[in-house]
Amino acid sequence: MLPGGRNPASFSWPNNPSPGDAYPVSGGVYNILTHHARYHPETIQARMPPDTFRVAIMRHPLDHLKSMFNYKHLNTKYKLDSLNPIQIFLENVTNYAETDMYNKFYNGHWPTKNFQSYVLGFDHLRDVGDEETEQHFREVTKDVPFVLILEHLDESLVVLKRTLCWSVTDILYDWTARNYRKFYYKSSSLSQLAMENHRKWSSIDYTLYEHYNRTLWEEVAKGGEDFALELEHFRTMNSNVNEHCRIDPKGSKSFTATRWSKAWTVDAEFCKQLRHDRYIWDGKLAMRQNGKLRRERLGP
Prior knowledge:
- 52% of the residues lie in helices and 6% in strands.
- It has 13 helices and six strands.
- The radius of gyration is 21 Å and the shape is globular.
- The chain is mainly alpha-helical.
- α4 packs across α10.
- The model has no long low-confidence stretch (mean pLDDT 86).
- It has one domain (53-266).
- The strands form three sheets. A two-stranded parallel ribbon has the order 1-2. Strands 3-4 form a two-stranded parallel sheet. Strands 5-6 form a two-stranded antiparallel sheet.
- One of its GO terms (molecular function) is sulfotransferase activity.
- It is found in: Golgi apparatus membrane.
- InterPro entries: Gal-3-0_sulfotransfrase (IPR009729), P-loop_NTPase (IPR027417).
- Belongs to the galactose-3-O-sulfotransferase family.
């Protein structure tokens, strides 16, 4: 399912997606939605097959805050002329994060408060313990049984592979950093007060993150020694594939069968696809879904 609106990266963000947001597909059947979208079960159920598996990704809330601060230039908007703007912000978080300011910049959604929860459909202005929040927590954790944890991506991918009965080739990924951004306060240490304030300020994010992180390690523990061996095998194969595609992208490299994967060969086409970014995939998938409409909109 590809966005059909003005923003090619998202579905009606920051609002809930609507049925008219999707790029039309020949036959009317979608099978994957991977773009930015706020979780809205009704829309997904209306456009996706009944057996759709829902998965999301989260990162530690404090790291997410730092990333959002940098991406949206909040240190400039808040006039935080400091080597550690996150520290200053969190020491006085309720003074800085006023609704009027956020409405002005971000159409009512707050990038510093429960942002990851907002993506999963929560009212980000509420807190843990609120009845509406608790009810939505029960619904989300039931509808989205598994979430990838960015800090433990390899473990998350192996669990996903096992859950969906995928092949190891389905979870290989390009090691090239696509969205890595350096900023001067990325590794700045924070006081205990600042960290406690953030936990209170984004309590839903922390609760969700800790729930899914715990779920991940429960699944890892169930796999025992076999999981540890498969994880090592995946990391080795991912490293070998990336190294081959870097050194000899037009050549081929064969892998023998193991207890976790069939015999297969990396070829030039696989290396090419491994390097594709989202924009290239969007174009290819749009042509596959509805080539006639794609050409009408963008030309040959």
